[in-house]
Specification:
The protein is an alpha/beta fold. About 45% of the residues lie in helices and about 10% in strands. The protein starts with 12 loop residues before the first strand and ends with a helix. Bound molecules: zinc ion (ZN).
Length: about 270
């Protein structure tokens, strides 16, 4: 019997453009209250997001946006603009708290709050979860299953999606990530390291994309509007979008679409 097709149609690999709209919470979670530091976060929803949505529209790409509940509450128009653009919205904590430091009850309270907040603003229930800073607790997967999530996008162990072992009577899809495909290690100024030039970072991402395509995997780009939204980096994002959508046999989709496909393909292969 021929093995089940891994990707739709004749696609040999998949690619997703994902954005974590952290705004001020990235700094708040580190105890920062200083106004200028926080203003770096505000740049995301206020200045960068409209330009990113325009680039995605021109490229015809449906992306996935992970939004802390605090950000959704403070920038409801941003959430509405993302939804109006046809993009997916996923959960990303409340104030970007470190999930690995929460007890189960606190973690569940935050998860429920973020589900309720995003569902109300987006008009549909999120199916995906990305933990702030990609740090999980021992309870996270069980809580996601209990609250009806379809997928997690947090682990770094594979190039292809996979199914987690059943927990709380449900099976979650994992769509893996990597620091290599994240803009923060290159573009987040911490005061102790210098920033990378966008051209060199773009070259690295293109090479990684080619390699993942050869392996038949999913290139899961993770961007932060407050970082990728500077003009020099937006130019890099525009070039990346052009390159990806002109690469033959690559399925560009949201993580929700990739998760649904993977679950169906896994069931068919059984
Ligand atoms: Zn984040």
């Amino acid at each position: 019997m021929a093995p089940a097709a891994r990707w739709p149609g004749d696609a040999r690999a998949a690619c997703a453009f994902t954005f974590d709209l952290d705004a001020e919470t990235l700094w708040m979670a580190r105890g920062v209250r200083e106004p200028v530091a926080l203003s770096q976060g505000r740049f995301g929803p206020v200045e960068a997001l409209p330009r990113i949505l325009e680039l995605l529209k021109v490229a015809g790409v449906r992306a996935s946006f992970f939004i802390p509940a605090w950000v959704a509450e403070h920038y409801p128009d941003s959430v509405k603009a993302i939804v109006a653009g046809g993009h997916e919205i996923g959960c990303h904590g409340d104030e970007h708290e470190r999930v690995s430091e929460l007890d189960a009850a606190q973690e569940e309270r935050i998860l429920v709050k973020s589900l309720e907040t995003l569902t109300k603003l987006a008009g549909r229930r999120p199916v995906g979860y990305r933990a702030p800073a990609w740090q999980l607790s021992a309870n996270t997967l069980g809580l996601l299953a209990r609250h009806g999530f379809d997928y997690s996008s947090n682990f770094m162990d594979r190039l292809t999606p996979y199914l987690h072992p059943p927990v709380e009577g449900a099976t979650l899809v994992e769509i893996p990530v990597s620091w290599v495909l994240d803009d923060a290690p290159y573009f987040l100024f911490t005061g102790t390291r210098s920033l990378e030039p966008p051209g060199a970072v773009l070259q690295g991402w293109l090479t990684e994309f080619d390699g993942i395509n050869e392996a038949g995997g999913v290139t899961n780009f993770t961007f932060h509007p407050q970082l990728i939204g500077r003009p020099s980096r937006l130019a890099c994002l525009r070039e990346l979008l052009e390159h990806v959508r002109h690469t033959p046999r690559v399925w560009v989709a949201s993580l929700a679409e990739i998760s649904a496909h993977w679950r169906k393909a896994a069931a068919a292969a059984r």
